[in-house]
Amino acid sequence: GERKGLGTGSTVWDGGQILLKFIEHKFGRGGLKGKSVVDLGSGTGAVGLVAAVLGADRVTLTDQKQVLHLATENALSCAKAVGDPELHKRVKVAEYSWGEDARHLGAPFDVVLVADCIVPKLYPMAPLVDALKRVSSSKSLIWICYDHRCNSEVDPRVKFRELCEEAGFSFKIIPRSEWHPDFVLEDCYMWELKKLSDSEEGRGAPDGKSS
Question: Alpha-carbon distance 170 to 166, whole Å?
Answer without folding.
Answer: 10
